[in-house]
Amino acid sequence: MTISASLDQGRAAFAEHRWGAAFEELSRADHERGLDPVDLERLSTTTLLLGRDAEGIDLATRAHEAYLEAEDAAGAARIATWIGIYLMGKGDDARGNGWLARARRIADSTGTAAESSAALLLVAAALDDLYAGEPGRAARTFAEAFGIAERVHDRDATALAQLGQGQARLMLGDAVAGLALLDEAMVAVTAGEISPVASGVVYCSVINTCHLAFDVRRAQQWTIALDRWCGDRPEMVMFSGQCQVHRAELYRLHGAWADAVTAARVAQDRARLGDWTGSFGAWYQEGEVQRLRGDFDAAELAFHRAAESGYPAQPGLALLRLAQGRSRLASSSIDEAAAEADPSTRRALLAAVVEIDLAVRDLAAARRAADELTAAAAVTEIPMLRAVAAGCEAAVRLEEGDARGALPALRAAWALWQELDAPYEAARCRVLAAQAARALGDDASAVMDLEAAREVFDALGAVPDVLRVDELARRSPGSRSTPLTAREVEVVRLVAEGKTNRAIAGQLYLSEKTVDRHLSNVFAKLGISSRAAATAYAYEHALM
Fold first, then answer.
1. What does the alpha-carbon distance between residue 437 and residue 430 come to, in Å, rounded to a whole number?
2. Based on CB atoms within 10 Å of each CB, which residue in 112, 296, 315, 512 is the most buried?
3. Range(s) within the chain of domains with CATH label 1.10.10.10
4. Side-chain half-sphere of 497: how many Cα atoms within 13 Å?
5. How confident is the model at residue 538 (pLDDT cuts 50, 70, 90)?
6. How far apart are the first and last CA of the chain?
7. Which CATH fold would you assign to the domain 484-544?
8. What is the pLDDT of residues 428-437, one digit of tens each?
9. Residue 538 neighbours by CB under 8 Å, 6+ apart
């Protein structure tokens, strides 16, 4: 095969998004004679998309040096900027800042290069402001970058500047303008106007931002688009794990928890293959499902793996501590996370702040957090944010002794969660409604709400919530009381299902000795001596 044939086929494969073939042919052409700067850049992009991170950066460095040798300062500054942005995104700040400094030096050395690379450099500077909690300054810099990018027809920089402006606007509380800018950035991506790496960055950043803004409908629409984009590029590793993370988050919200874990584990596999963009979410999403299922050891492991990526595993880890009975640690960790977060991320933490503050009896702090959520929801029509705010308002009102005032907020929250097809959150509203009804003396409504919530929790496999509902039901004036603890009830229920002690131990992550002890306590409390009698008791007392 001639050199020109390898190069031609490599370029064709690149244009057709056949990354494996592009890598093979361009690498062959590079080995035979060497590539010019543009083709080296293509090979670098291909290598990065295949998940070969270090090799891709080395090739980008070679492309940068080739541009310098060709006295193409504009090309050298542009690729240096991209290397810097890429490394900063990975958390390699020292090397990233070094490359950005080099890009600025090269751009400053010639007016032509300065004009063509200024937009990307301004995007990088604005990102620093955004991550430093300066959204106002970031918005102005992104706007300046957008103006330059439009003038020099740099479509990548244009899309990234729009993305950044949207994120900054959301952080400043202007959800309508922010989300509109995100949608506009996505138009360039879906139209195929920008490069593969820039497309992936915009896709994943927009979906992440939509989740932070509680706009689950937009997140779902763009996740479907990202899924299609990744599907059209089956060899691509980078961004493919992040796509699975977004799928997992939506599955979890909609109650498909087994599918959520499957998607999270696919994302973990993609992370091992080289997609570092999804490494945090891959483990965090699994941790959330395991926490909700009551498998606290698995959740602990997953959250720690998520934190290894450099991002705090919050609010999941704080809520896990609360479920483990370590409420003070839960409170300190969520307070620290909320204090350090940017405004958008802080809003995503506030529901957990309310739940944990109520658990530690800090009613004043819970009220402040609920009021902050209510204020944020008042300026937007985003259903999920309104549902979260209404649920938190109701929970605080209940603790303040205003059960009657809590009911309208609960009805609104439940209706919104139903509309969003979020069964777990809707069921939690039913539990709060039962508590409010009981406080108002309406025991019949309380029993009805608890039974409806328990049915949902049981179907989802939300064991801690099932046990909590059972405990609330036992306290109900109209319910049959039982002397058994929540764990003993769980053991009796599994005995009634015909499970052996070994099977029960495996399902509850206990030792067989511990299960034996629980069963002995059950027999002693109930005055029975057989598993058949325990089964009969379970059915007689509606424990099944």
1. 10
2. 315
3. 484-544
4. 14
5. confident
6. 72
7. Arc Repressor Mutant, subunit A (1.10.10)
8. 999 999 999 9
9. 492, 493, 495, 496, 544
